[in-house]
Amino acid sequence: MSGAPIVTWDEAGEPRSVLWRSESGAPPPTRVVIADDRMTADTAYRLACDGTALLWRGDFQNARQLLQSMVRRADRKPLKSSATPAEAFHLHRMTQGQRARALGMLLLPLDDDYGIPLRRAPDVRQACAEAYGPGESPSVVSLRELLGLIGAHEWRKKGVEIPALEDRIHPYYGVFSPVRGEYVGLVAEAPLPSMELAFDIGTGTGVLAAVLARRGVARIVATDQDPRALMCARENLARLGLAEQVEVVQADLFPAGRAPLVVCNPPWVPARANAPIEHAVYDPDSRMLRGFVSGLVEHLEPEGEGWLILSDLAEHLGLRTRAELLALFDKAGLKVVGRIDVRPTHPRASDATDPLHVARAAEITSLWRLAAC
């Protein structure tokens, strides 16, 4: 456990300390009290909001019910309706961060093999191993994160149906799941400038590389810098029988060389991620978008195209303007040779109770076809 974060507490008059696990990057709590089935939801929520963590020693299913009660308390206050879109977004992000911190204060113990030493606890050993790697010592994790691991494990087992592939993609925990199929559909429909070679920048699960391969592109080089995404993409492509057609390499944006087609689906919202797991959605100062656009020309073959898949949600939230996006293209020596648009079909787009409903209802996802001027 050398160098690893440790959580400490007193129990039965003795000091205790074990490994602290947090995929969100949350620091270990400094105040920890023992909690069990006798604790009320009001008391638990008050302590959590004050920054006191609750290490659960009762029944596992009762802990889940307690967390659900804490969620209801955390969701009581609506956002101000008079806020501008940008104000509503930042207030929503701040509220979500505070909510996550409070709900993350209900903790569970894990044995060194990720078994949960509580009554009526499920077997989460495989789900934990997929996210954390092999067990090494006893640890403590928030129940909220553990439930996320369990959900991700189920998604990984059953996969996400991709109509363009007539098959499934199996996402790893922490790798962006292609549940929003509209952007995949755009890549499946856009006219291909070449059938010889394509680069897929920030491949994630490998879904876009797989779509290009199924469309007949002879060779694809798919890049990512996250080791978990690289393993996920390789496994998916192997399962689909495309491992010989698609090379998965570790790189920050572009691989070496040029291609007649370069595809990228960067994070859509230029804002700070509250946790590492959100990096597929939030990108401060549009780092990946700017990096792709500014480096595209030098990685395109003559007459080649760069496909930028981007939602305009940031524009409706007041976080980026269309003029700023077009100026990025112009500065990079790029011209727009075509654009294909689609409206999202995910549930949030029609959820009037969503604090960002106005922006989500107006959202359009586009595939920008870019070429050197």
TrEMBL record:
Q: Which SUPFAM superfamilies match?
A: S-adenosyl-L-methionine-dependent methyltransferases
Instruction: Please report the stretch or stretches of sequence annotated as the Methyltransferase small domain.
Output: 198-309
Question: What are the record keywords, sorted?
Answer: Methyltransferase, S-adenosyl-L-methionine, Transferase
What InterPro entries does this protein map onto?
DNA_methylase_N6_adenine_CS, N5-glutamine_MTase, SAM-dependent_MTases_sf, Small_mtfrase_dom
Note one Pfam family from the annotation: MTS
GO molecular-function terms, A-Z: nucleic acid binding; protein-glutamine N-methyltransferase activity
Q: Name one GO biological process term.
A: methylation
Top-level taxonomy: Bacteria, Pseudomonadati, Pseudomonadota, Betaproteobacteria, Nitrosomonadales
Per the record, the domain of life is: Bacteria
Protein name stated in the entry: Methyltransferase small domain-containing protein
PANTHER family under this entry? HEMK METHYLTRANSFERASE, MTRF1L RELEASE FACTOR GLUTAMINE METHYLTRANSFERASE
